[in-house]
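Aggregate trends can hide what the representation actually does to any particular protein. This step matters because it turns folding into a mapping between discrete strings. For completeness, the protein is quoted in full, as a sequence line and a line of structure tokens:
=====
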Amino acid sequence: MTSADRGPFAVTGNQIVKTAGALDFETKATYNLDVTCTDDLLQTTDTYVVKVQNVGPKITSLPTASTLDEWQTAEKLLTTLTLAEDAADCV
């Protein structure tokens, strides 16, 4: 690949593969990959576009339920959320 957009991608044999590294829609939503193929005499170049899908953060530790006594009046921590991606807030 010859473009500056190369990012975390590589050509391995006859396959385009995503290598190590996370993709982030807010940082870069599209990668334009210029792929050049050649035989011993001629070469051709074409562009392959990778579009990054914007997905929300995933909650990875939400239990299915909590039990509270009916007389519970004080504030009580029920669970702590763990997210797979940075999030500003949960509501």
